[in-house]
Amino acid sequence: MRPSARALLLATLLLTGAIPVRAEAPADPATGPVASPETSPAAAPDFAQCLGGLKTLAEERGVPRPVAETALTGIAPDPSVVPATQSQAEFVKPIWQYVEASVTPERIAAGQAKLAEWSEVLGRIEAAYGVDRHILVAFWGVESNYGAALEGGGIRPVVPALATLACGDPARPGLWRDELVAALKILADGDADTERMRGSWAGAMGHTQFMPTAFLRHAVDFDGDGKRDIWHSVPDALASTANFLKQSGWRAGEGWGVEVLLPDTFDYRLADETTERPFSEWRALGLAPANGAFPEGAERRAALLLPTGAKGPAFLLEPNFRVILRYNTALAYALTVAHLSDRLRGAPGFTRDWPRGDRMLTAEERTDLQTRLAALGHPVGGADGKIGPKTRAAIRAFQEARGLVPDGYADAALLDRVRDAQKPGQ
């Protein structure tokens, strides 16, 4: 997970203040093998000095000095991890590519086999935490392909990776220091040793990719062997994920949301993704479920989201969707987990297709768009290159002022219109 652990990527959809579990994209071996002593650059004096400071920090936060000394002495920086901070797939790929890379026929079939294999354990986890088994197995599938990715080329020792980030990533050094100290506490507690504690470039570990701080807060020993082993124990990993979701506000017996179809006369200003209305009110506004029926219960409420505007699928999102976002704040990630969970229970794919002909914006173009919208009097809450609720609200305001469909969708065509609006005489 991207960390409960990490105070990062906080400007994305529907964020409510909770810290996510994972700090980077789901398991992706494309980051390459761990650098060996032969291929790693020699530890520079500033890295060695930084390690000394990290040892002191860890001791100040309660890590026994011998544990920090043993774990941090003699390690070299990993040259692959800092560049990886700039290439997280869920923020650079079109959303449909990201969803479809994980929700494949093969992964659906494998997940359904896992549901059968671990049925008894999943039943006990559901009873203990109130989290639906399909959601848990969907997290497992997206995070590590049901454990298959744990032996891939991108899996590396966690402590050197986090030390490299703590000493080499100027954007978030405090985040990485916190994660490193948490990793050292795990070693001190005996839940893992340095050989077992392997993970992604950002330190995400185990079957469901907990960051070290998330591990300390939420990992549980569900198989009763005295260790919280998210690396080798499927019961521990899935129960730990369920515990995180429960502690983050998961509502037992409720889903994440539904795909909906909008009437031709729909007022797109209502799709602000933050205003929740009862399903009965959405029905009165002409929305209909794309498959099946709306959830029962007059108290059930949802917010409307159009990830790719009026041209793509629309979703009514229940509060549990926000909990998925607390695991990982990227909309593409949360929608992938949600959709895979539905497919695992036998539901069909999305009814409406994505606008595949549209060109998505690069990170630099997203920042440019935000800067220009703010200059035109539409505040975005900061030009960070992340298209979240405030930016989409600014886009809707711009679109409405110019007679466009106010759907909040940011693509290359919109950026061209915003640039044109800044030209003299416009």
Number of helices: 18
What is the helix content?
40-55%
Low-confidence stretches: 2-19, 23-44
Summarize model confidence as the mean pLDDT. Answer: 88
> Can you write the helix and strand succession as a string?
EHHHHHHHHEHHEHHEEHEEEHHHHH
Distance between the termini: 46 Å
The global form is globular
What Rg is obtained from the alpha carbons, in whole angstroms? 22 Å
Derived structural class? mainly alpha
Strand order of the largest sheet: 5-7-8-4-6
Tell me how many strands there are: 8
Strand content: 5-15%
Please describe the biggest sheet, giving its number of strands, its sense, and whether it closes into a barrel. Answer: 5 strands, antiparallel
Give me the secondary-structure topology.
Elements: E1 2-3, H1 45-60, H2 65-72, H3 81-84, H4 89-92, H5 95-102, H6 105-117, H7 119-129, H8 133-144, E2 156-157, H9 158-168, H10 173-189, E3 198-199, H11 212-218, H12 234-247, E4 257-261, E5 277-278, H13 279-284, E6 288-289, E7 301-305, E8 314-317, H14 319-327, H15 331-344, H16 363-375, H17 389-401, H18 412-421
Antiparallel strand pairs: 2-3, 4-6, 4-8, 5-7, 7-8
Keywords: Signal
Domain Transglycosylase SLT: 47-342
Pfam families: PG_binding_1 (PF01471), SLT_2 (PF13406)
